[in-house]
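cache lookup: miss for this entity combination. No prior model stored, computing from scratch. Input as submitted by user K.M.:
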Amino acid sequence: MTEPIFELNDIVVTVNHGTPEQINIMDHVNLAIYPGDFITILGSNGAGKSTLFNVIGGNIPVTTGQILLHGKDITSMSVERRTRFLSRVFQDPKMGTAPRMTVAENLLLSEKRGQRRGLGARHLKTHMAKFKDITSVMNNGLEDRLNTATGKLSGGQRQALSFLMATIKRPEILLLDEHTAALDPQTSQELMQATNDQITRNHLTCLMITHHLDDALKYGNRLIVLDHGKITYDIAGDQKDNLTKEELLSFFNDLDG
Amino acid sequence: MSIIVSAIGQGLTWGIVGIGLFLTFRILDFPDMTVEGTFPMGAAACVAAIYSGASPLVATLIAFLAGMLAGLVTGLLYTKGKIPVLLAGILVMTAAYSVNLRIMGRANLSLFDKPTMLKTPFLQSLPPYFDSVVLGIIVVVIVTAVIIYFLQTNLGQAFIATGDNPNMARSLGISTDAMQIMGLGVSNGLIGLGGALVAQNNGFADVNMGIGVIVVALASIIIGEVVFGDLTMNQRLIAVTIGSILYRFVILLVLKLGFNANDLNLISAIVLAIFMMLPVLENRFRIRHTLAKGMTKHD
């Protein structure tokens, strides 16, 4: 049995503490993530999907509970430190890239994710050939726009770039926060396919929030459902492969009822 | 002729202030009001240091450090104290007024019989007003070169990214707090340096000399942008100094029309307002096109 990379142990996040509106937006969550896991995450609005990512990323502090990385307690580690092992793609294409910097400059920045940045010259030119290779994988013309300011790209190109930036330096855990949701269906499907290729080929460990039941079923080896800050469903392997959309839908209907 | 040379000298010296403000105003996207306090602080620190026997060069470097210190305070108030950056700047600017009076011991100190960087034998051997032009060029070239180099380093890129998209910067492990504090420190250091040079140029430091500095520095940045349009980051830095010189010419022109020095702040504000409105007016009158045409060679 392999050891988990990352564990959430009995995580509680309470907001509006001491007021009548006090609520646990993360309610005693336990989650162990194993190497190579590609976990799709479903849940209605306010179920705690984004909270889960913010807890993993260190963007919001946990009220009680413990976060472990390779068995070591990192519960109070800062957002900046966690970027050494963690990367993230956001839903909004504007969130993940610096608009006035070029595509190549953005990639160069992301190559040093989590590392010290000193007063050495950046040597952009020596990276160009490599960046061209990396971007051509996305099949959307990004490789011809390396010197274009990111703000001038289409949403699809920008989001593909965000994805590349998150994976150019291999993360131990990759968080995808509905990263195709803001794109048109065609572009969304293309990016989702490219995402899956990259994750499978590089054996990345990944958590992906999605609203599409089809995507949640089609991709990944494990599926979890969040509801009211709890993990209410967690299946993996053959069980997930055999899960049908009808079964999943009826499960969701039960949740509402 | 000498009045034009003098204007160029002033433009170069104030170009340093413009470059300093560029770091916060354009790169970090901060409206940093600290500058109105750090400019006279640089002047005060420099003059006080010269009075206590420091060499003018050392005194000028002290002015840089004094300005930087004030900028660091603004940065800490903003990042760690969670005070909005505009207000943090105003607080430090207000406090700086008292500090500057403390530094100088009174409201105005003359450098009449004191050494300055302009009173070196070489600069004195030049025709009138060329001393400030030569000194200005030396300092502007050094400052611009250092900043251009810095922005091409990994740290400099992280600094630019922080201003461009702080969320992304953090998600790549860049400490945006550190970048913002550093930016405010270096920016205000340069503005203190500019204040020191202006004080040596003018022959005195005055506790009120900071009023309107932000408008003048902004005018340099925006005139440069309006005149030259789309530029790379390095070109934009150089355009700030050219904008600063052009601004001096505009002021010169206005003074020729019969306004006097007391009207300067009013004129500065109007000049800046006009240049900032140009993008709006441009759509109607195609002004940028005309201005750009005026800057290129006849073909």
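stored under new cache key. The beta strands of chain A are 6-15, 23-33, 38-42, 64-69, 72-73, 86-89, 173-177, 206-209, 222-227, 230-236.
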